[in-house]
């Protein structure tokens, strides 16, 4: 059974951490899993977000999983998160997309919904 985990909660939310631990558990059990970051969930892809030394960095934890980490480009741009390509396109001074994440269109979410057996939203 394949699962799509849709993360809409900001990284400061406990729900964002629950999404991460669910995905981590599914991977450990050898289940097929995909993720998609949307709405405030895209903030996890901001490499300029500061995390105190005594706390785990959710962005780094996601990158360690080795999954594809698609982020809605429109939601990201609206929250000041961009890759170099979009920074150039929209005349922004720099990029700040965290390593391991990629900006994609909502078509990717629609396709993922079509090909997975269940959707879990955090």
Automatic annotation (TrEMBL):
Pfam families in alphabetical order: DsrE (PF02635)
Taxonomic superkingdom: Bacteria
Signal peptide boundaries: none
Keyword Lipid metabolism among record annotations: no
GO molecular function annotations of the record: sulfur carrier activity; sulfurtransferase activity
Subcellular compartments: Cytoplasm
One GO CC annotation: sulfurtransferase complex
Gene Ontology biological process terms, A to Z: tRNA wobble position uridine thiolation
Record-annotated membrane-spanning stretches: none
Alphabetic keyword roster: Cytoplasm, Transferase
Family label: Belongs to the DsrE/TusD family.
Name of this chain's protein: Sulfur relay protein TusD/DsrE
């Amino acid at each position: 059974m394949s699962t799509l985990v849709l993360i809409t909660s900001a990284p400061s939310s406990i729900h964002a951490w629950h999404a991460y631990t669910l995905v981590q558990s599914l991977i450990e059990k050898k289940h097929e899993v995909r993720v998609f970051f949307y709405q405030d969930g895209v903030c996890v892809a901001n490499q300029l977000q500061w995390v105190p030394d005594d706390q785990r960095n959710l962005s780094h934890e996601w990158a360690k999983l080795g999954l594809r980490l698609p982020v809605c480009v429109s939601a990201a741009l609206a929250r000041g998160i961009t890759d170099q390509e979009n920074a150039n396109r929209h005349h922004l001074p720099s990029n700040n997309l965290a390593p391991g994440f990629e900006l994609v269109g909502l078509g990717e979410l629609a396709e993922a919904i079509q090909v997975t057996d269940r959707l879990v939203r955090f």
